[in-house]
Amino acid sequence: MKRDPHIVFLDHRQELLTWLTRRLHAREQAEDMVQELYLRFVQHAAGHHVDDTRAYLFQMARNMLADLGRQQQARATDTHSHDEPLMLAVPDTAPGPEQVAAARSRLRQLAACLEQLPPLTQRIFLLNRVHDMSYQEVATQLDVSVSTVQKHLTRALCHVTEQMKTH
């Protein structure tokens, strides 16, 4: 039996809003995007079957974020492409060679610290801290409880913090 797409969307609305708010750093913009997601999803669901609605909705959200990024980049390029003196006045904020070398060294230290951890703890750390997934998203992907994610992440952070202090 096919569920009502409006109800299906509402099941995931809060999680989508939280996820988008974290990425956009603007609640109002995230709410607008969730509304647009709702409209697109209901329209699509009217004519198509979606097996995994959560995955489908989050993929739609990622696509919308990518579109937004491209639009912002295009606007920035259009605004400044004919204004050469403005571009010359922008200070160079790129890191120098010393900063790059120091950052690479710290990254190698972090990788070495992570290799000392059990594989599940490493995976949880990377999904949460590198791929910016929520505890719930990590738990769902790895088929573990949120509590397990929290415990492993705490262990990883304590270990990394301690190891990075000594180097």
UniProtKB/TrEMBL annotation:
<comment type="similarity">
    <text>Belongs to the sigma-70 factor family. ECF subfamily.</text>
</comment>
<keyword id="KW-0731">Sigma factor</keyword>
<dbReference type="Pfam" id="PF04542">
    <property type="entry name" value="Sigma70_r2"/>
</dbReference>
<dbReference type="GO" id="GO:0003677">
    <property type="term" value="F:DNA binding"/>
</dbReference>
<dbReference type="InterPro" id="IPR036388">
    <property type="entry name" value="WH-like_DNA-bd_sf"/>
</dbReference>
<keyword id="KW-0805">Transcription regulation</keyword>
<dbReference type="GO" id="GO:0006352">
    <property type="term" value="P:DNA-templated transcription initiation"/>
</dbReference>
<dbReference type="InterPro" id="IPR013325">
    <property type="entry name" value="RNA_pol_sigma_r2"/>
</dbReference>
<feature type="domain" description="RNA polymerase sigma-70 region 2">
    <location>
        <begin position="10"/>
        <end position="73"/>
    </location>
</feature>
<protein>
    <recommendedName>
        <fullName>RNA polymerase subunit sigma-24</fullName>
    </recommendedName>
</protein>
<dbReference type="Pfam" id="PF08281">
    <property type="entry name" value="Sigma70_r4_2"/>
</dbReference>
<dbReference type="InterPro" id="IPR013249">
    <property type="entry name" value="RNA_pol_sigma70_r4_t2"/>
</dbReference>
<dbReference type="InterPro" id="IPR013324">
    <property type="entry name" value="RNA_pol_sigma_r3/r4-like"/>
</dbReference>
<dbReference type="InterPro" id="IPR039425">
    <property type="entry name" value="RNA_pol_sigma-70-like"/>
</dbReference>
<dbReference type="GO" id="GO:0016987">
    <property type="term" value="F:sigma factor activity"/>
</dbReference>
<dbReference type="InterPro" id="IPR007627">
    <property type="entry name" value="RNA_pol_sigma70_r2"/>
</dbReference>
<feature type="domain" description="RNA polymerase sigma factor 70 region 4 type 2">
    <location>
        <begin position="108"/>
        <end position="157"/>
    </location>
</feature>
<dbReference type="InterPro" id="IPR014284">
    <property type="entry name" value="RNA_pol_sigma-70_dom"/>
</dbReference>
<keyword id="KW-0804">Transcription</keyword>
